[in-house]
Protein 1
Amino acid sequence: MPPVVKTVIGDIEMWVRQGLQAAWDIGTSQAVITGDEYSLEPFLHSPMRLKVRTVVDVGANIGAFTLAARRTFPNARVIAVEPDPDNAELLRHNCGHDANVTVCQTAVLNDDFPDTVHLCRHTLNSGGNYIGQLFQQKQPPFIDSEPIAVPCRSIHELLTDLGVNDIDLLKVDAEGAEVDIFSCLAAHNWLPKTCWIRFEWHGRDSIPHLRRLLSPTHQVSIEEDSLWNALGIAHRKETPCPS
């Protein structure tokens, strides 16, 4: 693991990388923790927070959302999924001591992908890594290093192997893999068993696909002002919003 330093973001202590990557690690973590990027704050004032048992964090990076989720939902198990080996190592350093956190170092996609995929990495922004096979026809903004091979699993297979029966909160920030992930969840009937969803989309052409996949089971709100990526929130139609 590269040299790290402990910092405090909001009321959460975490480790970040030293040097040039520190600004990215701190910036992305601040957006999640103090900026409440994924709208966890409403749960803090709701009795529903104590009923949350399973949180799935896809694209966990170095652990900011996982740590925030454990703070918000004290009774929850968090499954933190991160394909980048360097990020995953720091994720374990931040969260691995918590018996209620399961770290999975793998990419997750749909059933059609091979057991190994190639991860394209951004030298400084560890949150900008993406699966090369998803962008054969068009390239996202960050391309500045040689791809590395990483393990890949169907998200359905991973959740099943971990003994998950339903999901209270699902967060997905997978740098362009969102449609494949939600397609797999829809195909295997996971979406009716998922209460709340927080996600980031990448590429405007993904928006109608995400609406199509989520709308049968969820009320969906998607920010559409950005050209490349923004956030979406969904809650299952029979599930109340936290207030």
Note: The chain has one domain: 38-236.
Protein 2
Amino acid sequence: MKDNGEAARGPTASSRERILAAARHYFFTEGYQAVSLRRIAGEAGVDVALIAYYFGSKRGLFSAALSLPANPLELLRDALDGDVDALAERVLRRLLTTWDHPTSGPPLRALMTAATSQENFNVLVSEAASADICDAVASRLGGPDAEARAAVFTTQTLGLVFSRYVLRVEPIASWPMDTVVAVIAPRLQQVLSGPWLTSAP
């Protein structure tokens, strides 16, 4: 129920958290486009103007609702350490673990789904993949082909994630993590450390 004293008291931390909780619920269950700010405000029990006050716009609210406990790159840092010959398996296991987790998985799926229909969000996902994961993998590999190998690796990895968690392509969507790793990791590792073109075709 909307708090009629909200305007008199001014915005509070609790009202911001209620907005975020309502936004996460609707964005993650119904999608970005299907939900109105007025509906989110009603669920949170606040005036819709408070959303603009705190977040500026629907996109601003969406970005805040997707905030994760840690930067995705931070989650991969330990996977990037260690033997390069097992790098693909470590990265793949860490990504799948993060996407399968009940806390971090829904925001990531919502982000990826929104990226397919919202121009600014597909730019956001592209920049994150390029500036974070791709660059980190390239730095770990070294050598003249590092950037190209990292770009192909990142593209194939994101394609797998999209197919498994957003498109729900079978049987990949239903495979246990160990099966996905057993089937896919050797192919990804070939990109990282296998033979490479000496020049562009």
Note: The chain has eleven helices and no strands.
Protein 3
Amino acid sequence: CTDSSMKSEKECRGLYIDYSRDKKEVKRREWRRHEFHYDNVCWALLTLFTVSTGEGWPQVLQHSTDVTEENMGPSRGNRMEMSVFYVVYFVVFPFFFVNIFVALIIITFQEQGDKMIQECSLEKNERACIDFAISAKPMTRYMPQNRQTFQYRLWHFVASPSFEYTVLVMIALNTVVLMMKYHSAPTAYDAVLKHLNTAFTVLFSMECILKIMAFSLVNYFRDTWNIFDFITVLGSITEIVVDLQSLNTINMSFLKLFRTARLIKLLRQGYTIRILLWTFVQSFKALPYVCLLIAMLFFIYAIIGMQVFGNIKLNDESHINQHNNFKTFFSALMLLFRSATGESWQEIMLSCLSGQECEPDPSISPLTISPDHEGGCGTDFAYCYFVSFIFFSSFLMLNLFVAVIMDNFEYLTRDSSILGPHHLDEFVRIWGEYDRLACGRIHYTAMYEMLTHMSPPLGLGKKCPAKIAYKRLVLMNMPVDEDMSVHFTSTLMSLIRTALDIKIARGGEDRIALDSELQKEISIIWPYLPQKNLDLLVPINKDTDLTVGKIYASMMIMDYFKQNKAKKLRQQLEAQKSNMIFKRLDASTLPEDILSNAQPLPMMAHSAGSALTRGGFVALSPISPQELFLQPISSDADGGQQQSLV
């Protein structure tokens, strides 16, 4: 009953005085249902759907616990056991089944992506790595060409790791200073913090000046991070100038954001942070398509809402008011965006039902209600309108964002030993250490050292034996140019192919046929890729072309030959030594000069001239028979004990 003093339907008759407003008002008593109830299946489903969205459920819970007998008014806390129903429902449906629904959306999204590449033998991870190789470019270090100038020495200073670490320490200290400020602090305390902030601004300004002098003005602004640093410093200087001038006419407090913006520079430091940042950026490539789909949904529902609910009279006591209505397209979009976030969407729906007052028609003079809406505005179509919109927007469309991000973060649940596109940024960074001019080429002899400086699964690591590294280089088999250099793109693609085993010729397989087949598949997936870039990705080497694989294979063959030869000679010398030990000789029959010049039999001498010595394999070089007998005798310092030649 609208009069809370009446407890039954029979008593709910006549008039009563409403004291709830500023002025007293006489109203007629009415027996009504609550907006959300369980009188039939349809209303029960609507009530449970509203509760599952997390909006208005405390009020529904209160109404359920206050329920009494039929045709009787509510009584506070009459059936508290009904609260158990809502607790169980929240655990089972919003916390469990809704998340299953989200998981199904993610799985369906991934399956649809896999269907697009069923005709291609390349897997999703392989395609992502190749896509990275297509778009990757050498990191430009902007190193001065003349190494005898002051600019080069300055560049070497600002590009050194110690300089970067110093800047990071200054950012950390600046953050601590920003954290030390509090309200109603003493004047002296604020003055100290102010001077410290000014000092940090001066230091960061010096950093920008040094980098501009080292890189030159044009090259400095080619780097996005440098532009960010410059804007941050410029904003901090502007804040100091405004503070010194005491310009109180304009609120310039937003300039303090530039000081905290320096923390963003920490994102580019650290291997794990760079991987997360790269994956987050990759997610934005697919988000525009999801945003376009959601924009179409909002556009359609906004147009429908303007046509159906645009003539409802604005009422400040209702949820259709001057800030929340369907009068214009922009206001309809704002209302739908609010509903998509779940903010009192059910109250907006109830304010759009039939029986609402209508706005006067401005085309009729004097202003009267249009004849088409004499029975009132609003419609029960609002139930279908808002329920369908909440389902499509909150439960379906917005979860596509989660699907896109989860798809890019798939590597978190994958074996870490499998190469992924998030690993390839390390190659670009380490390549820049050897190709500081960013010409896209390095000498082939630097390949071994570069592989050992890259961690698995991309590289081999510093503890990898040279034999394994040389075998990896033989499989990579990049073409070597006339100046004995290898190309950036070819090297990166060769690393990807060997790590993921993408059409690598093994045994008696036709290498040229596999390379041609891979070129064909890449051209199908990336149809607009120029042939020049395709030849760099998958070069088809002729038998007469010089490649890295041929160079390192010949080095391995030569080293194996030396080791085999040394092994055979060692066996011969060991056999000779054994014969001399077990053969009985009469010392009296030997010449006196032989007995006096006798010395231990040497075995082998170490040589560092092997091709694999650099990687840890020490080859043994034999000693000729002439060297065995012509080496002089050396006596021990203590008592003339003979020394071994080994």
Note: The chain is about 55% helix and 5% strand.
